[in-house]
Request: fold
Amino acid sequence: MEAWGLTDPGNVRQQNQDAYQIVKLGEKALLCVVCDGMGGAKSGNVASKLASEVFCEEMKRSFKPQMTPHEAEVALRAAVTLSNISVYEHSQLSEEYSGMGTTLVAALLYEKGTIVVNVGDSRAYHIDPDGVECITVDHSLVELMVQRGELTPEQAKSHPSKNLITRAVGTMPQVYPDVFHVKTEKEDCILLCTDGLSNEMADQEILFEVIHGVHKDDCCQRLLQIAKERGAPDNVTSILIAL
Reply:
């Protein structure tokens, strides 16, 4: 099991408000997290960095290799809750931090399973030679409109409100993450990314780069290059995990 990550400000923005971490939890467990901060130039990067660090530190403290998948889910939810409290309390310290928050998507891979947790519109994909599946469901206004039948998925991609999210870490005293237990096999891949990548590439294009690229270790760089060639108006961050 290997993982590679990359983050870049993109072509337009001066500051990178994304953050990511790849953490080994012993010999046979891996934790990866991607966060996309928001809240203005002075605080979005603070929110994403703080959330990712608190999340990983809590999982390093609480994770045990013998945990059942249910116990691991409880630990992941607790780590998200602690991240939320940390960012929310930090946002109360001064005006410049007011309203800051961040998305969070993370994957825990260990001997007993693969578990994904998310808040916001950063995504997790499950990729194998048979295809690509978006594991997570965006917590966004346009996703709600798609579910209600008011927009098609294609219309949602260009909707003016596509960047409005309905859940975030740190904007409210409580947070409600989604958790997914993913059936994975050897040679499968998990991709975590911010919307700076998913907005620029179709799922099938991501599949092609992951499966048919010559080397897995430069896949994140290739994905970034495609996003930049298409304008990259937002920060771009991805982590590729190969089982």
Q: What stands out?
A: Helices lie at 44-62, 69-91, 141-147, 153-157, 195-198, 203-212, 219-229. The first strand starts at residue 2 and ends at 8. The mean pLDDT is 95. DSSP finds seven helices and eleven strands in the chain.
